[in-house]
Design brief:
The structure is a homodimer of 352-residue chains.
Chain A: H1 14-21, H2 25-31, H3 40-53, H4 59-66, E1 71-76, H5 83-97, E2 101-106, H6 113-121, E3 127-131, H7 137-145, E4 150-153, E5 163-167, H8 169-182, E6 188-192, H9 198-213, E7 220-223, H10 229-240, E8 248-251, H11 254-264, E9 277-282, E10 295-298, H12 301-316, E11 325-328, E12 333-334, H13 345-351
Parallel strand pairs in A: 1-2, 1-3, 3-4, 4-5, 5-11, 6-7, 6-8, 8-9, 9-10
Antiparallel strand pairs in A: 10-12
The structure holds a DNA duplex (16 and 16 nucleotides).
Chain lengths: 352, 352
DNA sequence: CTGAAAGCGCTTACAG
DNA sequence: CTGAAAGCGCTTACAG
């Protein structure tokens, strides 16, 4: 039996429901819009019967009229950093809860990002959420021009345009510097990840500037290049071969820090935290595993995700015209086993 | 300026394009369908102008007619297992490449799975891909009944229905048993994860049955309960306190194995691999990190993903009526640092 | 090979 | 408060 739909179960439409209820389709339709004017008794009758019959308005037909799709286009990359699966899951779950659907595109190769955005855009998402991706300015403009404003989550857009939800990374960097300096470290190093990422730039600036403010030499910087374990590991190996002394390290994020620690310990006799203290950023789950026990600064993730959903809802309703960047204060530094105090007795006494 | 659309850039429609080209909208429309009969010169003219003007057929309007959406609904959970971000990324990228869009739902709480599926279904996906989720049979039936067949990736459906892409987990389990037994282990243990998962059941059966075939006592089984680091860790701690001797362990997957190893070593003097060998399953990236160097069996992930995309394409075209399960042979066991031979001299001699 | 017309499943002014 | 009608952007028999 070819030429037959996979199965007979035709979807029930407004027409069916209207006939069943002996009403016009206009009335039935209105019942699904809280703001539409319709007798309360009519509405409840419609809704009741609809759920019995399993009727749901066809979102495609709806969007043809309303120009709203309830779709959010989400562009992600680099899910090898466990921070992002956490973000994705949290965001998608929250968005689902308010009735929005997430259409996903992955942009692992930067060259393909624009293409991925295009594909997404053909479904006319009400807005875009960009996670851990650097959008070309053409792509960004295109989104805006078809009416899908972009929210940049965590990493902000290169041109500073669009909506942004992030944490105060500079303050986080400063916090890391203060912690290391207070604990007696004098030879600081920043392990940079992707140099084009706002998160990286801000954490580095916050860290280095604070060190200088506190009277130290400007910290060394080594460029790992990416927000990955492998990049951190390679940086760690390199540092392990340095002549110059380094006693306190702040890494661009946790996964880089974890890689760095393993890389730096490749040199026999070089130990974390005995010889070098290492601080990460994000507080991913793994940072608390017994094998890592990484000292780190937590991102205020729930707040950031809530704010994103709230903003998404506003944007989907065409409000909130003015793009703006919202920053949340990072959490307190969580001291675990990859840092230790280097105070001499004397200094310790002075410091209280 | 309220009451004004976010910006003027109205999307260009067939009508616009037809007028511009001086053709009928029927002709223009046909140009986008390779099978439609239209003069080649006409088609290329249309396509050329379309790309100049940035025209793309509105997929919503299209799907209203064709009943095809090019959307695949993807249900995932447990992205804390790094295996799944790898899967998701790979699958989404490949699906994108063939022009399909992925609509994502996360089902972290089992109770909410049906709801998530419902939301997805309202967008009439051509098919569903279910990853690491146990679907209720109602949910599964509902998908089928609205014409969205399900592909279960890796973990098969509880009722064995639907399409499935998996690896031969039983063979993998047997492989683990052979490896451990050949290396002189005699006291085997299987660390079970989620007992309802087909992957878990099959790996366990393959492992235990092979051990018995080879003349050993049926291996012990400890139920960690979930496919997570934490579950593996807890199981490891418990095993570390056992009186009975265990020398060879096969864990339901890598992340459980990594947790198990750290948990079991909590007991002073108990070492992996010196006292206990541990084998995982999946060969996630992390298994090869210096801190883990986990002996494991790789999944034939690329093959599995390719097969999924091929099947998805067929299903989207209404072919392939008969649900079936496809299994790929697992990779060879990769020996790293969490296992070692326990052969006595004598036995080693005998074994060659 | 091309065009005019019907219709997919909805929403929304417009009357009443 | 409700209904008839127009129309969103497309595709696809049906004629020619």
């Amino acid at each position: 039996m070819p030429e037959k739909k996979r199965n007979g179960a035709r979807r029930v439409t407004v027409k069916d429901l209207a006939r069943d209820l002996g009403m016009s389709i206009s009335t039935v339709s209105r019942a699904f819009y809280p703001d539409a004017v319709v007798a309360e008794s009519t509405r409840s009758a419609v809704l009741k019967r609809a759920s019995e019959l399993g009727y749901r308005p066809n979102p495609f037909a709806q969007s043809l009229i309303t120009n709203k799709t309830q779709i959010v286009g989400m562009v992600v990359s680099n899910l090898t950093n466990p921070f992002y699966p956490e973000v994705m899951t949290g965001l998608v779950a929250r968005l689902q809860a308010v009735g929005m659907n997430v259409m996903l595109a992955v942009a692992n190769e930067p060259e393909k990002t624009d293409e991925a955005v295009d594909l997404l855009l053909s479904y006319q998402p009400d807005l875009m959420i960009v996670v851990a991706v650097t959008l070309s300015s053409q792509a960004h403009e295109k989104c805006d021009s078809v009416g899908a404003p972009c929210i940049f989550f965590n990493r902000l857009s290169a041109d500073g345009a669009g909506f942004g939800i992030s944490c105060d990374n500079a303050a986080g960097g400063a916090q890391a510097a203060d912690f290391l300096i207070d604990a007696g470290h004098r030879h600081l190093l920043y392990v940079s990840a992707f140099p084009g990422a706002s998160t990286n730039v801000e954490r580095q600036a916050g860290f280095c500037n604070r060190a200088v403010e506190r009277g130290l030499a400007r910290p060394h910087v080594i460029e790992a290049g990416l927000f990955t374990y492998e990049a951190g590991y390679a940086a760690g190996r390199e540092v392990s071969r340095w002549k110059g002394k380094v006693d306190g390290v702040f890494c661009a994020n946790d996964i880089v820090a974890i890689g760095f620690i393993e890389g730096v310990q490749e040199r026999p006799g070089l130990r974390v935290p005995d010889d070098i203290s290492v601080v990460g950023f994000d507080d991913i789950n793994m940072a608390n595993w017994p094998s890592h026990r990484l000292t780190t600064i937590a991102q205020p993730l729930s707040e950031m995700m809530e704010a994103t959903v709230t903003l998404a809802l506003e944007l989907a309703r065409d409000q909130k015209a003015e793009p703006q960047i919202t920053r949340f204060a990072p959490g307190k530094l969580i001291e675990r086993n990859t840092t230790r105090s280097r105070k001499t007795k004397e200094r310790a006494d002075v410091g209280g």
